[in-house]
Design brief:
This protein has 20 helices and 15 strands. The protein is α/β, with parallel strands linked by helices. It has two domains: 157 residues, P-loop containing nucleotide triphosphate hydrolases (Rossmann fold, 3-Layer(aba) Sandwich), CATH 3.40.50.300; 306 residues, Rossmann fold (3-Layer(aba) Sandwich), CATH 3.40.50. The radius of gyration is 24 Å and the shape is globular. About 10% of the residues have low confidence.
């Protein structure tokens, strides 16, 4: 019985875990990480270091580099190599495909199969049924701490009641008409809202799910020109040019380490650019801080939904509305003076509208730390809606959420566009999701634009297939119908 055994004893018994997300020592070199992993079986490991490196040839060229310099996919390979050097008897893999490009997942799946063929029992936690079907013969489905299904993985396809996301089961309602007061309000010269709502024609387009016609005869709402950023000798972003037009949804794809998130950091002001120009509605953003760019109309979400864990959902949304609160005097609030009272009531009303808009009613008074990944993602998107930006930068909105939740994100993203009248730039590895919402794709590789155009054109580009997509259909189509 190992129920109460300490982790080191459990590891010594041969039970190893490959975590989802951060799983390496970033300040140590690749070689030092591998050496640290050999402490359990220094004399007779299941696989030698040379054998492990044969499985992950991308690591052999970077043995002397800090792990922090590796791409996300290479870090996952390093973590996998470290686990194998521990000679596991039981291998627990937490979300193998989390945040990884399809080509990387395609490389990792045969390694998982080879480990299983060598006699290691593998337990894979995976959000994508499509990915799970390619590797697992038997499945358990858990919800709210209980096993709701066990049996052959293929039988899950006959259980839509199991696969349907509990939280996003009403996402089809995301095509309801725009509610008054929720639409992005037009902005005056100072960037503040003046209270006018979107036209009924635009709302009708949102109801039908059709993409509005993109008017490219007008200047782009977001313009990026010759953007570069280096870290030491590594050029993370190399001369990137990007134009985004009003109400356009642009999908950004590329392998791990292509510079996608760094580009977002540069545009949103979290990192300074070495060279380049960034304009929002023709206004230069160069030199402005992140909060100044946000006030100008630039919204941003992050891969890990950076929210306040000790606040409730309602409190979090109220904080997101802070820039629109006219009365900030704590004395007026303490004395319940009319101006402070009116401000509080307007904020509460706006919070209620956002909660209804994003179907968060059941979570209004729950703490952020108590929410599932999918629910936190919806709260994060609600905060973006509250901000009323002109352009929204979304960094892997489907990361870490269940496949059916990812499939239901498409109408939510369309509604963000229609309700706010905003343009969206979306980094995403889920191709069915991104194809269903994007008007245009931009593919990055090694910090440069590799291909740009209509989604089908970019996805059929041989260079994009070779560097990013790979050839395994189930890995590319993480959401959508399983085959």
């Amino acid at each position: 019985d190992i129920t109460h055994a300490p982790p080191n004893e459990i590891a010594a018994m041969g039970i190893a875990q490959l975590p989802g997300g951060d799983a390496v020592f970033p300040s140590m070199t690749v070689t030092e990480n591998l050496e640290a992993a050999e402490w359990l079986h220094p004399e007779h490991p299941m696989m030698s270091r040379a054998e492990v490196l044969e499985l992950f040839p991308a690591l052999t060229m970077r043995l002397d580099e800090p792990a922090a310099n590796l791409s996300g996919g290479q870090q996952q390979m390093l973590a996998f190599a470290m686990v194998l050097l521990g000679s596991p008897r039981v291998l627990l893999i937490d979300e193998l495909s989390l945040g990884l490009a399809p080509a990387v997942v395609e490389e990792l799946l045969p390694v998982v199969q080879r480990v299983a063929d060598a006699g290691v029992s593998v337990i894979l936690v995976e959000q994508s049924v499509n990915v799970a079907l390619t590797i697992a013969e038997r499945a358990y489905f858990m919800e709210k701490g209980q096993i709701r299904f066990s049996g052959p993985t293929a039988d899950l396809l006959d259980r839509p009641d199991i696969l349907r996301s509990v939280f996003l089961q009403g996402a089809a309602a995301a095509t309801e008409p725009v509610r008054e007061g929720v639409a992005r309000e037009d902005r005056g010269p100072d960037g503040q809202a003046d209270g006018s709502a979107d036209s009924s024609e635009e709302a009708g387009s949102a109801e039908s799910g059709r993409s509005p016609a993109i008017d490219r005869s007008q200047p782009p709402i977001l313009r990026v020109h010759d953007l570069t950023r280096s870290f030491g000798g590594i050029r993370a972003v190399d001369g990137v040019a990007l134009e985004v037009y009003d109400r356009e949804i642009v999908g950004v794809i590329g392998p791990n380490g292509a510079g996608k998130t760094t580009m977002f950091d540069l545009i949103s002001g979290f990192l300074p650019a070495d060279t380049g120009e960034i304009e929002l509605e023709g206004r230069p953003l160069d030199g402005l801080s992140a909060h100044q760019r946000a006030a100008a109309g630039l919204g941003r979400s992050f891969q890990d939904a950076r929210l306040f864990p000790a606040l409730t959902v309602a409190e979090t949304l109220a904080v997101a509305l802070e820039r629109f609160i006219p009365t900030r005097d704590p004395v007026s609030a303490a004395l319940h003076l009319p101006n402070a009272y009116d401000s509080e009531q307007k904020t509460k009303q706006r919070v209620a509208e956002l909660i209804e808009l994003m179907a968060l009613g059941d979570y209004r008074n729950k703490f952020i730390r108590e929410l599932s990944t999918g629910t936190r993602r919806m709260v994060d998107l609600a905060c973006v809606v509250a901000h009323r930006p002109l352009v929204v930068l979304l960094d892997e909105p489907s990361s870490g959420i269940a496949q059916r939740e990812a499939e239901a994100l498409a109408p939510v993203l369309r509604r963000i566009r229609s309700d706010m009248g905003a343009a969206l730039v979306v980094i995403e590895h889920d191709m069915p999701l991104l194809r269903s919402v994007a008007d245009r794709f931009v593919a990055l590789d090694q910090g440069s634009v590799l291909s740009e155009g209509r989604p089908d054109e970019v996805l059929e580009d041989p260079n994009v297939v070779a560097s990013y997509l790979g050839t395994t259909e189930a890995v590319i189509a993480r959401s959508g119908p399983a085959t």
